[in-house]
Amino acid sequence: MRLPMRHLALLTLALALTAAVPSASGAKRKPLVAAKVLECSTGLLPAERFALFRGSARRVSGTERMWIKFTLQERAGGRFRRVLAPGLGTWRKSRPGVRRFAVRQRVLELGEGAAYRVAVSFRWYDEGGELLRSKRKLSPLCRQGGTLPNLRVLRVGGRRTGATVRYAVDVVNRGRAASSATALALAVDGDTVDSPPIGPLGAGESRRVFVNGPPCVASVTATVDPGDLVREGNERDNARTAACPQ
């Protein structure tokens, strides 16, 4: 899943290295590509949280140009996900004939409590523009300190009132930080019937949310933060499925 574009600000600096560096006798040959974290800054203020990544490549036989592209990935309690932001996903191209090519990617205003890395893509092209080779490498992590909320659905119940059911969903924030406002999606027998808003929840705070819907036959599922708008310590425990209330 792709994350929505957020507050990440970007600055890219491309640097082509044109001079060959002679190797000492018996020295180990450098790898074809590299992806590194040159700087990982943490802090309380957004301006203090940034990372500087570097991708570099050596030419292969027949290379006229090399291309490098960065994809930023974020993990905040779950799997790594791609972050969409201005300046990312653009191929940076070397000058013709260089032996080495390096690109630096600076990412500003990183989020608290998350880990970041870049997936660096490399391409080599010959003089006629034909692709000779491609490769991909992941950088080490830049970890940001701080705490995150963790929204969970504790219970799904309900009471029938005439032709409808008044469903009651208990939501709690198990994290150590307050959550921002979000929503709760209620699905009855697989069909979403409503997504009422939920205001911010403090650390440890719980709230009961009521949703009117049709009687269910098989099951009812409640999902807090269905749009994945809240960065959480665990993104995989936001939904709960229960039997139909009696």
Structure report:
The protein is mostly beta strands and 246 residues long. It has two domains: 9-143, Sandwich (Immunoglobulin-like); 151-243, Immunoglobulin-like (Sandwich). The chain is 0% helix and 51% strand. The chain has strands at 9-17, 33-41, 50-58, 65-75, 81-82, 92-93, 100-108, 115-125, 131-138, 142-143, 151-161, 164-173, 182-188, 191-194, 197-198, 206-213, 219-224, 239-243. The chain is elongated, with a radius of gyration of 25 Å.
> Low-confidence spans: pLDDT under 50, at least 5 residues?
1-26
Task: Count every beta strand, where a strand is a DSSP E run of 2 or more residues.
Answer: 18
Name of the CATH first level of the largest domain: Mainly Beta
What structural class do you assign from the helix and strand content? mainly beta
> How much of the polypeptide forms β-strand, as a percent range?
over 45%
Please give the radius of gyration in angstroms. 25 Å
CATH architecture name of the largest domain: Sandwich
